[in-house]
Amino acid sequence: MRISTGYGPRPASGTGFETFSWYFMRWSALGLIFLVIIHLLLNHVTTDVSCTSYELIAARYTNPFWRLYDWLLLTLALLHGMNGLRVVIDDYVRSRSWRLVLQSSVGALTLIFFMLGTITLITFQPNPSILPGLPKCL
Amino acid sequence: MWSWLLHRVAGLGILLFLLVHIVDISLLNFGPTVYDEGIALFGTAIVRLISLALIAAVLYHAFNGVRIILIDFWPKAVRFQAAMFAIVLVVTIVCFLPMAYFVIGPVFGWPTGNMPAGM
Q1: d(CA A133, CA A53)
Q2: In chain B, where the domains are located
Q3: How far apart are CA B32 and CA A74, in angstroms?
Q4: B113 touching A, CB under 8 A?
């Protein structure tokens, strides 16, 4: 089995999970660079983070584009990050049983956080008494 | 080696923040009072400092990631890896400084012009 370090030379061939993981890290990275930097500019530069209040999110999420944007960000960042953690655990944890425990926890955490984020993005319905609100700085 | 270690540590730090961030966003469904209490924390000086670390980590991880991809897919790039690492550090700092101004500015009352409701 080819163990990807996440770094180093491109896998010569293969269709296994580690090869897939190696390519996924790079393709998701290309998407994340744009998604994350725009996300940071929107919520820390053009609007101060103290103004990203319930009202601002409610107004923003009237457009489904931003829910999709945030869902893509959630999915790619979580899978990219958790896969990175998986590689780090493979690198440092030598005991087979500990690796099993930790890698299972990584899998479970990925699923739980993916569901929590996805459910939030899908089910959020702003309290109508607040709309149409202007961004309120806290 | 330092580029590799920094990439790894930055990545783990960003992941930790991501998990916290997913939880704080989930407060949206508990209504405006609860959610805004969470967001107000981000406006405090201490969390602004943590945000600076996060932004630095994200920028470094992103630009060093581009360097890794270039080395992986363009074999000759290995020859320039050290020069590219220097470029990564410069680009990280150049992008970080203006963003840091906006993030930390409110603590010192610097004009940032990004608070529409007036503060």
Answers
A1: 10
A2: 2-108
A3: 22
A4: no
Tell me how far apart the alpha carbons of residues A27 and B94 are, in angstroms, rounded to a whole number: 25
Confirm whether the ipTM is greater than 0.95. Answer: no
Domains of chain A by start residue, with CATH: 17-123 (1.20.1300.10)
B60-96 pLDDT per residue, tens: 999 999 999 999 998 888 889 899 999 999 999 999 9
Q: Quick one: tokens of A10? A: 């491109």
Q: For chain B, what is the mean pLDDT?
A: 93
This prediction has a pTM of 0.91
Tell me if chain A has a CB within 8 Å of the CB of B62. yes
Tell the CATH topology of B2-108.
3 helical TM bundles of succinate and fumarate reductases (1.20.1300)
Q: Do B99 and A40 touch (CB under 8 A)?
A: yes
Task: Report CB contact under 8 Å: B43, A57.
Answer: no
